[in-house]
Amino acid sequence: MGDSIPLYHGPIFLESNAYTAMLFFTLLLTINRFTIFIFPRINNILFSVKNTLKISCLIWIYTLITMIIHRITGCVQFFDKSELYFYYNCTEQIRNGYEMDNFLFYQNHLMAIIMCLLYVIIYVKIRMVHQNVTRAFKTETIFLIQTIPLTVLLGIGMLSFKLVPLLNITGRYRFFVAAFENLIIIVNEIASPVLLLIFNRDIQKFSTNIVPNPLHTIKHNEVRGKNPDERILSNYHLR
């Protein structure tokens, strides 16, 4: 791998940028669920297709700028190749670098606090209208259930990345800690598409069309080889 920009520093910079962007997108998803329950009219305007794309672009631009400033002020992220974990080396920080460090620290934790508060408000709203549950409200609740695990996993990741380095674990035990941290990263990355596949019926139907059920295909081929009367009976049983 070496220490070249395209093979080492470039991917590491993209990783730190993607992690910060993931925090913002999780917050954006939480705000989306919050406005669905509390301010549905605002939700229709704020989260239209065009506005969602604009907000997404602004998030990427903002995270890119903040990560560049963080790098310029002397806080560099590295990857330990022997123990497989990311870490920051901020020994060459200039004065403004410490201010940028504090800003990013409080920014990330403030987002987590805001998400928790929004979920508390949504929970109170659900309890208030529990006696008069409509089909649309049940659908909105499913969307909420889809979002909560993402926030919980993200919170676990933030806590582990902040607390584990304070334990000063060294030696062979560091390998297990690195494996745990990498597992959290992988789970955070795959959680969103997996939850979308589980809860979204449109995605389920689309996935079924792309990857057909082999048992259904075998039965369909067996039916094609039968006479018309047998096909009618077979179709009846297939249903």
TrEMBL record:
InterPro entries tied to this protein: 7TM_GPCR_serpentine_rcpt_Srx, GPCR_Rhodpsn_7TM
Subcellular location: Membrane
Gene Ontology CC: membrane
Keyword entries, A-Z: Membrane, Transmembrane, Transmembrane helix
Positions of the G-protein coupled receptors family 1 profile domain: 1-196
Gene3D superfamilies in the record: Rhodopsin 7-helix transmembrane proteins
Main location per the UniProt record: membrane
Transmembrane segments: 20-39, 59-79, 103-122, 142-161, 173-199
Protein name: G-protein coupled receptors family 1 profile domain-containing protein
Source species of the chain: Dictyocaulus viviparus (Bovine lungworm)
